[in-house]
């Protein structure tokens, strides 16, 4: 499989080149040249298959041309050392719980897969250290840092906006040390993301050190997230609830929903998607008007979705030939204020006994308001509610427990480098490393 740039001004790349480079030379995002449809019998038999077996089949379609099958399946099974169950909330709405991994967030799947894939490719290289740059608005940093912790030959730099991630999220990547460096940027997530993109385009910096990204701009981060969409369908099929299936995704940088759209293009029978936004509604406005107008992000209680210029929008455009009508035919949108998110967390807890995190609350509400009588809905509960303990407790009026894994992170000592949002300062720091 070859990978091309969404800007169409860079040479195509192999999977190894796309993973190690992260971003194409023309600043575009890599896209696979083709999407391999899966056979009908796979979908017929999915309900009898395990999550890992389903994921191995999907991985073969994505990556089978580039990695020996035994090694690819080992990477997949090692990645999925935890379940992503489907849990009923109402008669027609189900939660796909993606918080059962090491850092209790959906990004554990993509981050663990990428760490193992990058290690596989770097072993075949000349032994030069690979430096992973990752911008985070919350959960990406912890998932990537823990996915790569202790991996020989790889150093990770996590850039995060000062004061704009939860304390628990911050503890998950600032207390690790070893091959993980946390960089506290005096700005917003979009500033962190801009620094990462600028670093890739700086010739002097790239001569000094080998750089790659672990954000969802990297194909090895976002594509494996398709695994759990297939698993969700299989589990709903097992329950007899897979007909007219609608999937709602809390959306920030849009890598997660893009993986779901790829799954649909491979034949997964999802009727339509809902992209649930917080107050950062750039994509929602695009759906209404056909005009994409990025703007500075707004801080909300659903902080992982605080993105004003989602990178993966370029992939969605590419997937549907820049056709606004074609995109609207597959995806509709919803947007919610902080007050609405709080209200939804309380209503869901009081009425159904289910505790939502702020991001899942956006998706649950969008399904509650947008699901037709003949449809079944799955929303992505992307992080454990305890990662937003104070926000959730204030909303539902009840204490929630902290899982032991989270509590352990909070015992560590914060280690971070503080920088401004100008690229010169960031470059100087990396050049001194």
UniProtKB/TrEMBL annotation:
Residues 2-79 form the Threonine synthase N-terminal domain. Signal peptide: none annotated. The keyword Lyase applies. The modification N6-(pyridoxal phosphate)lysine is found at residue 107. Its EC number is 4.2.3.1. GO terms for molecular function: pyridoxal phosphate binding; threonine synthase activity. It catalyses: O-phospho-L-homoserine + H2O = L-threonine + phosphate. Pathway: Amino-acid biosynthesis; L-threonine biosynthesis; L-threonine from L-aspartate: step 5/5. Keywords: Amino-acid biosynthesis, Lyase, Pyridoxal phosphate, Threonine biosynthesis. GO terms for biological process: threonine biosynthetic process. Residues 96-373 form the Tryptophan synthase beta chain-like PALP domain. Its cofactor is pyridoxal 5'-phosphate. InterPro entries: Ser/Thr_deHydtase_PyrdxlP-BS, Thr_synth_N, Thr_synth_N_sf, Thr_synthase-like, Threonine_Synthase, TrpB-like_PALP, TrpB-like_PALP_sf. Pfam families: PALP (PF00291), Thr_synth_N (PF14821). Belongs to the threonine synthase family. PANTHER family: THREONINE SYNTHASE FAMILY MEMBER, THREONINE SYNTHASE-LIKE 2. This is Threonine synthase. It comes from Marseilla massiliensis. The gene is thrC.
